[in-house]
Amino acid sequence: MAKLSKEAVRMIEGKNFTHLATLMPDGSPQVTPVWVDYDNGFILVNTTKERIKYRNVKRDPRIALSIIDSDDPYTMLAIRGKVVKIITKGTDEHIEKLSMKYMGKKFPWKRPRQKRVVLKIKPEHVMFD
Predict the structure, then answer these.
(1) Residues paired with residue 80 on neighbouring β-strands, in sequence order
(2) Nearest alpha carbon to residue 50 among 122, 111, 121
(3) Topology of domain 6-128, per CATH?
(4) Tens digit of pLDDT for each residue in 75-95?
(5) Domain assignments of the chain as residue spans, ordered by start
(6) Which residues contact 57 (CB under 8 A, 6 or more apart)?
(7) Which residues does 25 contact at the CB level (< 8 Å), separation at least 6?
(8) Displacement of CA 108 from its chain's centroid (Å)
(9) DSSP bridge partners of 128
C-alpha cells in the first residue's frame, strides 16, 4: 500500500472533485466524476449497485483516481490502486456525510430502492504534482 502524504490526504479530504477510472469488460477505460472520502490510508467512494463503475470493479478491482485541487487547478493528485472491499453497511450515512462535505446539505438524489455501496480503495501508486 502506498503511503499518502499530508498534502495528498488534504486533497482527498477537501472539497475536490475526483475522476474514477474503471475498466470495461473489453479493457477500455470508463471514467466517472465522484465524491471521495478518506479513512486510515484508504479512499472511499460511495455509489450504487446499478452503476457501471460498481459492475466494473466487481469484475476487475483495478482503478485510477485523478483529483484536481479546486483552489489551484494546476495541483493534481493521481492514484492507481485496487478496490479491496465493497462495504454494504452504513452507506446511507456515508452518502449524507459526503453530501454535507461537497454540497453543504442533505443528499438530494436519494431513491428508495437504490442499494448503495462504498468502494474501499487501497492506493498502490501515488503521484502528486
Answers:
(1) 64, 125
(2) 111
(3) Pnp Oxidase; Chain A (2.30.110)
(4) 999 999 999 999 999 999 999
(5) 6-128
(6) 22, 63, 83, 86, 119
(7) 59
(8) 19
(9) 77
